[in-house]
Design a protein that fits this description.
By secondary structure, the chain is of the alpha+beta class. Among the domains are: about 160 residues, no CATH class; about 110 residues. The protein is built from 15 helices and twelve strands. It has a six-stranded mixed sheet with strand order 1-4-5-6-7-8, with helices on both faces. A hairpin with a 2-residue loop joins strand 2 and strand 3. The protein is elongated, with a radius of gyration of 24 Å. The termini are far apart. The relative contact order is 0.10.
């Protein structure tokens, strides 16, 4: 049995057990921590088939560390008190062993899963069935952790059911985690290009006569897939099985273009004239910049950030410098902190730092482009979201 129940193999079995219908169920989603993208595990080469089963991958940041897997949706297993959450968030901690399945450190996995229960609804530990002792089961019951025993990389069974925690559906942290997961399903976690015109322009290219990719690359930018993906994320385009169509919001962009320029083709010619220009967008095309603001305010992360800032204001939090904002991490100090940390992967936030009221930007994470920002007064009164100049 050497190297058959390593941690990646155990995790793959665990993923398939609570979420057997991920490919067909729109209500379920699971993402695996990026450490499992490596080609080998303790000297054991991870088979390509196993890596495909564990996909998709992303960094999962919770206050108490990075769980091995995060799932969205009610598991297809026995869950006590299941009506406590309609769409629960689940974490899985996997423990395996390269040579001796009975030696997996189940106790540590139970404690790790328990550490996440302040932010999620259900915690699982999964391990080779040989390693799950009576003592481990007793600890899991005490700490309200589900236990899954793995017999092979394709065969696992529930050993100990647990109760859905009281975090519930209305926790802002749960909402942020759920949104992060569903967004990564669509966009792999990043806006591909960083100028708002590139997303507005895709809606115009879709409405224009001719081949959409050709029209887009000629008048906007060459990265057709990047513009399309961002337009879908912003709700301008609906990605249907029978083809991509404009949403109501996308149709409003087209209507605006016709009002401003007479025809969609004329608007696209205007977009083409902006190529290579370093003039701030708010000066180059103030009416289009205003439209970009309107689109940004309807983007879900914008709403989440507004809600988080409003709660901070209601709690009487002092105006924050960038250092303080970047430190919004321990939930016992700033209950909305995790909310902002999760969204920092998708949105670059800006605040006015008192007393100078100077606009300062949070640095974008590596590989993540900037789309929109919020302007916030020192009193945390949320103003209209603004798209900063993009050059």
């Amino acid at each position: 049995m050497a190297a058959t129940l390593t941690e990646p193999a155990v995790l793959a079995a665990a993923k398939d057990t609570p979420y057997p219908d991920l490919n067909t169920s729109p209500d379920h989603y699971a993402v695996t921590e990026t450490q499992f993208t490596k080609s080998s595990w303790g000297g054991w080469d991870i088979p390509d088939e196993l890596r495909r089963r564990l996909a998709p991958y992303n960094t999962i940041r919770l206050t108490d560390g990075e769980p091995d897997l995060l799932g969205i949706g009610m598991p297809a297993l026995e869950v006590l008190n299941a009506d406590a959450a309609r769409t629960p968030v689940t974490v899985i901690e996997a423990k395996g062993h390269n040579s001796d399945p009975s030696a997996a450190d189940v106790r540590t996995g139970i404690n790790q899963a328990h550490g996440h229960l302040s932010e999620v609804n259900i915690g699982y530990v999964v391990a080779p069935i040989q390693s799950i002792t009576d003592q481990a089961r007793a600890l899991a019951r005490e700490l309200n952790i589900d236990v899954i025993g793995v017999k092979s990389p394709h065969d696992a069974t529930l050993i100990e059911p647990a109760r859905v925690t009281g975090v519930g559906d209305f926790s802002t942290t749960i909402d942020a985690i759920r949104f992060q997961a569903t967004t990564h399903r669509l966009t792999e976690g990043s806006f591909p290009v960083n100028h708002p015109k590139n997303y507005l322009g895709y809606a115009l290219a879709l409405a224009a006569d001719g081949d959409t990719p050709d029209v887009y690359s000629e008048h906007v930018i060459n990265s057709v897939s990047g513009g399309r993906r961002g337009a879908i994320l912003l709700g301008l385009v609906d990605n249907r099985p029978d083809g991509k169509t404009l949403t109501h919001l996308g149709a409003e962009v087209v209507r605006f273009a016709r009002t401003q320029h007479g025809t969609v083709d004329a608007a696209l010619d205007e977009f083409a004239s902006w190529k290579g220009r370093s003039t701030p967008f708010t000066d180059l095309a103030p009416r289009w910049a205003q439209l970009a603001r309107s689109v940004a305010i309807q983007y879900d992360p914008t709403q989440l950030i507004i809600e988080a800032l409003e709660r901070l204001h209601q709690r009487g939090s002092k105006p924050a410098t960038i250092d303080a904002v970047d430190g919004f991490q321990p939930p016992n100090e700033h209950s909305q902190g995790v909310h902002l940390r999760l969204l920092a992967d998708l949105v670059q936030v800006a605040v006015f730092t008192p007393p100078e009221s100077v606009l300062v930007e949070l640095p974008a994470r590596e590989g993540v482009e900037v789309l929109d920002v919020l302007l916030v007064t020192p009193a945390y009164e949320v103003l209209e979201p603004v798209v900063l100049p993009f050059e």
